[in-house]
Amino acid sequence: MKLEVNRNRLAEEIEELASISDAEPPAVTRIVFTPTDLKARAWLIARCEEAGLAVRQDPIGNIFVRWVGSDAGAPAIGTGSHVDAIPNAGKYDGVVGVLGGLEAIRTLRRSGFRPRSSIELLVFTSEEPTRFGIGCLGSRLLSGSMSPDAARKLTDKEGRSIEEVRKQAGLEGQLEKVKLTDTYYKAFVELHIEQGPLLERQKTHLGIVTNIAAPASLRVTIEGAGGHAGGVLMPDRRDALCAAAELILAIENEARNSGAADTVATVGICEVFPGAVNSIPSVVKLSLDIRDTDLQRRDAVLRAIDGAAENIAAKRRVLVQKELLNADAPAECAPAIREALAQSCAKHNFSFVPMVSRAYHDSLFMSRIAPVAMLFVPCRNGYSHRPDEYASPEDIERGVTVLAETLASLAS
Ligand code: GLV
Ligand code: MN
Ligand code: MN
Predict the structure, then answer these.
(1) Which of 23, 107, 199, 361 has the fewest CB atoms in 10 Å of its CB?
(2) Strand-pair category, 279-280 with 227-228
């Protein structure tokens, strides 16, 4: 079997998909179920159909693209990722696993390979949390990690529910139909950019993920008292933004002092109300994203943050309310799939290292219903979630070659 990835066409497709965006190039913004996201999905489905593959969508919009194997009833071998992108993102996050997965299938078809188990490309809905506040919506529902009832309660900033926006996008059927059985996939392999600098620094071609860190996120609302910026004297103030500033630094401090470099915490959103230059902030809304490879350590940091919030609330006479959006467990990649990836790397003379995924991915949730593994390709300076995110066509080609080889060995 000779695997010849069409690197140039893949690079062109990555550029073409990046042009379907709500941001000025090179930035990419593609928020789930916006007209731009729907245009990108239609473009993608057309590419899959052109390749002669059968496409279906489930009620939440996960796209399944199947190459039917000779044993059509056997559990499938899955691969895939996402095409939604956070505001002001780059071209490669998620896209490399989707268009790279499609190219892996096309490469295998060109090589004359015929799978015994079906091989399926899966494009997950809303891996990014931008619109509904929680990431991996599609894979949470597919794996039963989120109930349809919980999903139906989610709304976007305009108060529009998932039910409303998905139906407007033409997605019919009940969310109850989304969950897959745990025999649907025999294995699931996600190709992704590393989103960190280690592969580039170590001059290594590829990373084989051993485990995926455990993410949690919260919404925090701080309520103080507003008033005139000239009239209210300092001893009388209950400034919500000053309390938020203290809390943000306490969060940073707790993460730094957890005792492990694997603990990371980020406040990425800070909304100030009323947001006027001569008005004391009365309400501040923060987001907190916290992750660790160790669940107990992450939860200990969360408790320490709770304690800090209580102290700040008492000292500054403000109300701090927290809403836990998700607190997920970490995932371990399946040794047998990691071994298949390692053998594929060795066969093609590509260097590889085992590594932790500090970003979360849909594979985290797919691991609840199938053995999973992930393959990382280097990205320049480790940059991701920013417009200058970049992975070279040569690095992507290596990732696609190993993915194709691995899919073939798992589907034989
Ligand atoms: C996924 O985009 C993440 O935030 O890890
Ligand atoms: Mn991302
Ligand atoms: Mn991603």
Answers:
(1) 23
(2) antiparallel
Whether the CB of 359 sits within 6 Å of ligand 1 = yes
Secondary structure percentages of the chain, helix, strand, coil, to 5: 35, 25, 40
Look at ligand 1, atom 5, and give the residue with the nearest C-alpha.
359
Ligand closest to CA 386: 2
Mean pLDDT, residues 133-150:
97
**Does residue 89's CB lie within 6 angstroms of at least one atom of ligand 1?**
no
Integer Cα distance of 211 and 355 in angstroms: 8
End-to-end CA distance of the chain: 12
Q: Ligand 1, from 288, 385, 386, 389: best to mutate by most atoms within 8 Å of Cβ?
A: 385
Amino acid at residue number 242: C
Report yes or no: 104 and 3 within 8 Å, Cβ to Cβ. Answer: no
pTM across the whole model: 0.94
162 Cβ inside 6 Å of ligand 1: no
One DSSP character per residue, 196-234 reads: SSHHHHTT-SEEEEEEE-EEEEEEEEEE-B-EETTTS-G
**Token pair in block for residue 1:** 């079997």
360 lines ligand 1 (CB under 6 A): yes
Query: Look-up: residue for tokens 């589907």?
Result: 411
Share of the chain above pLDDT 90, in %: 100
Percent of the chain surpassing pLDDT 70: 100
Of residues 267, 238, 241, 242, the one with CA closest to residue 254: 267
Q: Relative to the CA of 385, which ligand 1 atom is closest?
A: 2
**Phi then psi for 216, rounded to 5 degrees?**
-140, 150
| Phi, psi dihedrals of residue 392, rounded to the nearest 5° | -75, 155
